[in-house]
Design goal:
By secondary structure, this protein is an all-alpha fold. The chain has two helices and no strands.
Length: 64
Amino acid sequence: MAKPKKQFNDEALQKRLKAARDADPNWEKAIADFVDAEAKYGKDDPAEGKPYTVSKFTRPKRSK
């Protein structure tokens, strides 16, 4: 896998992520929000309960 040319460094984003982790360290609110959304909208999901299959994946060859 190729390395990115430039390291991503966004202090504002890092502060928001830290604040979110500090506010909900065990992801309880995020999980509750997900459960509520699934209960509200999941019954109309056409893919709900259908198995998902992945075709064979060929890895790209590494350049030397």
